[in-house]
Task: structure prediction
Amino acid sequence: METYTVVVTDNNGCTDTASVLIDIFIPCLEVFIPTMFSPNVDGVNDVWSVIGSCINRIETTVYNQWGQMIFQSFNQGNGWDGTYQGSVVPNDQYVYVINVTYDNGTTETFSGFVSVVN
Result:
């Protein structure tokens, strides 16, 4: 919290002072989940990961078209590199489910599709 004071003097020499206490709140960023990436090792969009702040805990799971889990992480810093069992997956859409617990204790679940384009 910061206190800011303004002193104003008019043409007649009359002075007045006003102060205000400001509490600056920086909100948490919304969670952003990219809808596609290209794990072709060109250094651009090679890893798919969740972007957001104030995340205390995260569980990211990716499934193929047959419902087989092909990626899981409990660390926001560990994104999916587009591989399964050491091989790059085919170009396709994959289903994700992401469970997030924020620093304030609230939870949110996201689900959708991510496209792999090599």
